[in-house]
């Protein structure tokens, strides 16, 4: 139930964000006197609607976004009624059109920044002083689940080998059978590579003091680490969970209302850099997505779709890390805000780029004494627009497919 709740929360948050994006377009357009005839949440058949003034508001059957209809977005639009010619969007000054078209992204940025500021005060922002990667500090569980199932301990489940051997919560595992482990993922891999059911020598540190125990590893069924959708195989298990933070080191740092402002600015800066780097890597990650779809290991650095984000939200809530839902909401809003400003049609950034191109061209032609060439013919740009839609649709389908058949998972059992 927690997993399903997390999925629903992220999906609903995305829907609300997109609806507010369209509301940003609508409200700024109305403020400048442009005519907005429709504002709907969702797509497909209309479930419910009402009209107030000249605008119809409503809800569609497919909750995958929303839209608002501004009359006369381009000179080629034929939706301008007699008497409304002066209210056509394309006739307004370029700065007003820029504000209207960028209002959607500004809304996403505002949502992200407000969420960061609130998180800084009430949830805390990630501690920048954490070691990376985290050492293999562990939590000792009471039992091992021999089948590949996520559940609580039940009578008859074997006692955790780590507990039997005397390991404790917050112990840092440094080596298994003489093989050094740098982090929790390396610990899991090293233990699973050992013969199931065999004893292992575990070196650890506790309160800065080194120690060593001998643990009889349990034989359990788990899906391969490099194939989360593969058939379970028999591997060894130590009976620990992680990764855990080093003792006394907080995962998040909280701030007061004033101190939260520079903390928000710093986090926003890091988010902007991360988003820029993620956008640059997208072309290089397409082969990795295809590998994930065709049965290979899923690269955790590959893009995710709404499906993947929702699954991560469910996984986070299922594991008690509800803070990750907030960070997902922030990251998604910031990424969508930046993506929508890319100078490509049919994105908002494409319309903004054309508006300023027209303005710059008119200025240049006036300076050289040539006749103003007028507005850009959007119809001539349709092949490019369709190409962008086709490529974007194919990429979205590839990403969503990878998130279904080979999803990214953040928690290793």
Tag the structure with descriptive keywords:
alpha+beta; two-stranded antiparallel sheet; 413 residues; 9 helices
What's a concise summary of this model?
With 413 residues, this protein is an alpha+beta fold. 44% of the residues lie in helices and 19% in strands.
Topology of helices and strands:
Blueprint: H1 2-31, E1 36-52, E2 55-70, H2 94-122, E3 125-126, E4 137-140, H3 161-165, E5 172-176, E6 179-180, H4 184-192, E7 199-206, E8 209-216, E9 218-222, E10 233-237, E11 240-244, E12 252-253, H5 260-293, H6 306-318, H7 323-339, H8 348-367, H9 382-405
Antiparallel strand pairs: 1-2, 3-12, 4-11, 5-6, 5-7, 7-8, 9-10
Q: How does this structure look, described?
A:
By secondary structure, this protein is α+β, with helices and mostly antiparallel strands. It has 9 helices and 12 strands. The radius of gyration is 27 Å and the shape is elongated. It is a multi-pass membrane protein. The chain crosses the membrane at residues 99-120, 384-405. Its main location: membrane.
Coarse shape: elongated
Main sheet attributes: strand count, strand direction, barrel closure: 4 strands, antiparallel
Helix count from the secondary structure assignment: 9
End-to-end Cα distance: 19 Å
As laid out across the biggest beta sheet, the strand order is: 6-5-7-8
Mean pLDDT: 90
Overall number of strands: 12
What is the SS-derived class? Answer: alpha+beta
Keywords: Hydrolase, Membrane, Metalloprotease, Protease, Transmembrane, Transmembrane helix, Zinc
Cofactor: Zn(2+)
Domain Peptidase M50: 10-361
Subcellular location: Membrane
